[in-house]
Write a structure and sequence with these properties.
alpha+beta, about 350 residues, 7-stranded mixed beta sheet, FAD/NAD(P)-binding domain, D-Amino Acid Oxidase, Chain A, domain 2, 8-stranded mixed beta sheet, globular, binds flavin-adenine dinucleotide, 20 strands, 8 helices
Length: about 350
Amino acid sequence: MKDYIIVGAGLAGSCLAYRLEKSGKSFVLYDDGSQEASKVAGGFMNPVILKRFTLAWKADEQLEKAYSFYGDMEDHLGKKFLGPLEVYRRFSSAEEQNNWFAAADKPRLAPYLDTKLVSGVNKHIPGKYSFGKVLGTSRIDPRYLLDSYSAHLQEKKCLKNDTFEYYEMHILDAGVEYKGIRAKKVIFCEGFGLLNNPFFNYLPLRGNKGEYIIIKAPGLDLEVGVKSSIFIFPAGGDHYAVGATYSNTDKTPGPTKAAREELVEKLRDLITVDFEVIDQVAGLRPSTIDRRPLVGRHPEHLNLYTCNGFGSRGILLAPTISEQLLDFIEKDTPLDPETDISRFTKKWYNKN
Ligand SMILES: Cc1cc2nc3c(=O)[nH]c(=O)nc-3n(C[C@H](O)[C@H](O)[C@H](O)COP(=O)(O)OP(=O)(O)OC[C@H]3O[C@@H](n4cnc5c(N)ncnc54)[C@H](O)[C@@H]3O)c2cc1C
């Protein structure tokens, strides 16, 4: 009898698995590579929404936990996937500059927004207005983190590279049985794939597609991240990642020509050197109608749980939310009512 089955080895499922491993619980983790959001994520450890200069939901509280969680994981795996990355916001108007100063006056934002503006960060990124530095930023390489952790679980024989077939799961009085494996509890973490889950697909997951292009720009020589209408950051050597797009209508998994053209056009407005697009990646952000995670216990099947709805903020949310869900299951600590799926009953969803 295992303690847990986890379905999905994105940020949600992997952070849960790591917490279970640290607390000595047994588990099997299933992943079939059908969703890519976590692997293609930019990976920024930054609590500020740089479009509007506001704080993402409870992000300052999540930041500290994320640093200690990922740092601990690095030590455990003997891999380095977290590193500093300076990030600058390029202003496109005097009004934006004023908004930056107004935001920097607010006590919860002040630690993250430098009020000493700079006139330039790179000679190939001209700006009519100045640039504001975001303080204390770092970046996780999410693909490296997830691949490293999967390899570790593979060695421990806890990972199955298979699709979890919901109709093969039998619900027992004290847990579940799935293809010969018995487990006390199942936590579903399929990201946008939740829509295929017959137990939880009543939840209002919307999905928002995001794409990045990877460019080669030998003349650029940029060592920092720059955010304007798009974000550009170094991706090793003379390669840079540029993105991301946001689409609420396209729910297809792969890269699109429309996104590439949009990003190339915006990039031409941002940098003045030649570049070549060498790759493109896409993923579906598991966004929700109220922009809050979807966490908790199934209303009827009490050994089934979900951990989902991280939208565009999985990097900071995953360490905090995974802890809250396991405290709820193991210690009966109430969930944050803003994330608890009990806010959406089946009845509620049928009506809406
Ligand atoms: C282009 C882009 C850029 C982003 N940038 C950032 C960023 O900079 N910072 C940030 O915080 N967030 C960012 N995000 C958002 C972030 O990626 C998500 O919030 C997060 O990855 C969601 O993680 P998840 O584990 O819930 O879902 P996913 O990453 O989608 O993982 C779900 C996993 O479940 C597996 N799965 C699904 N169904 C099954 C099944 N039946 N059987 C077995 N396995 C299954 C899938 O293969 C997948 O591995 C970005 C997203 C995109 C698309």
